Write the structure tokens for this entry.
Amino acid sequence: MRKTLLSAAAVLAFTAPGHADELSDIRTQQLIDQNQALTKRLADLEKRQQKLEKTSVAQTQPVAVKGNIGDAMAADLPYKAVVKAPPPANDDLCWRGVCLYGNIDMGLSYESHGAPLSALAGAPLDYLVSKNAGGSYFGVGPNQMSNSYIGLRGKQEIADNLYAVFNLQTLFNPENGTNTNGVGSIAQNNGLPLALQNSYGDSSKAGQMFNNAAYAGISSPIYGTLTYGRQSALSSDLVVNYDPISGSNAFSVITFQGANGGGGDTEDRVYDNSFEYRVNVGPVRFAVETQLRNGGNSGTGNAFQGNVGFDYMGLSMDFVGGKTYDAVSSAPLSAAQVSGVGGLSTFSGPQGLGAVAATISDNTVFQLGARYTIGAFKFFAGYEYIDYANPNNPLSPGAFIIGGYTVFAPNNTNFTTDKVLQTVWVGGKYSATKDLDLTAAYYHESQNSFIIGNGSNPTGTCSSAVSAGCSGQLDAVSFVADWRFAKHFDAYAGVMWSQARNGLINGFLLATPGVSKISVYDPGVGLRYQF
């Protein structure tokens, strides 16, 4: 119809002036009037078509669920709250309310003291002071600013103002395409001396198909959101929301150390068998979450967490408290442990996907996070208190843990005296332009002395590197520049300097006799593609 009108208007427009000298004045005026009428009608039809197109987009616009980026050795989206998404861009990958999204982070990194690249760990390099760090490293640096991931999320109305929601997300290593598998990276180093180990890191991501999120639920803007499945702990959400350099493995202590988000152990940063309920009452928000025990000789223990927070003017604050039973911190088996069973291949107990050593504990956590926004500035601060105690339900050799792995050598008596780990952080972000962010952060961590007293040291306290139970401290300073130079693309450059002392460096490769502190720095650059 539109093409026909255009053609008619064009013919009349050229015919009338071209042959006016052959027509009477009346005929000429009639043609001119017809031309003007057709032109006006065409303009009205175009306006009507534009209005119909806008209405159609508004009616079919999908509403997405922001999923949680979660584990540091991790990365979910900043919060799990169900929200209406802005109108999708023309290139958004959404269909009928279901959206495909993802992130790929790759770059170059240098560690003054590090270990070889891991093919499995979510943080595939020793970005922080680490036990197996030795000589310097320079090479590919994946997942520095954030974890690489891909996911599906969606929201569908199932009744009046009631929605079904879901989120499926998996983290992967972009340099080789493998799913993130922290426990697998530990098992890979079983029996090896520190000098021969590659980088590894315990994690809640243990090679599962959807290792970071696999949950569904129902949501109401009035009555809140109930979700179930595999989803991040509330303690993980607080770390993600209030870390100045949120989600960065290379430049954030509390992201690289997933234990901060896991309420003591990184394997609890994402809960299996979990139920979570969130609701907002005006500017105040509440949330509760529980993980239910697998039963039997299992490292998936009961866990309970609660959150209360609020937004006022430019200030946001959240408080989280929780308790986790049978929390697991995995480590490689020693050469003696491997040979003690005649090699893992002859281990008579169940191995699943592999066997590891582990320290078992019951953990209590309290967190406080704050963020204040004023103009182009954002300021962050946080505090975390974690108490580790011996488990009320000790695990036996062969215990089942996350991702299908088993514990060959569980340690159920490491905390006869409770260990207390405290972490504080502060930082600021300045949006120098709409496309350039500059961020600086400081992290401090300290543990008490919790070793068992003996004849030479009856009080059971120490402040040196002779035992992992001695008091110790860690300090780190970071700076990052992030430039969004094109749609979906950003480039970043950053550095973190960290130093650990006393009990926190016990057993480290670089902790030779007389050494009480170790420091490392890790400048890096990279590119991210987000969709």
Remarks:
- The first strand starts at residue 94 and ends at 95.
- The longest helix spans residues 25-60.
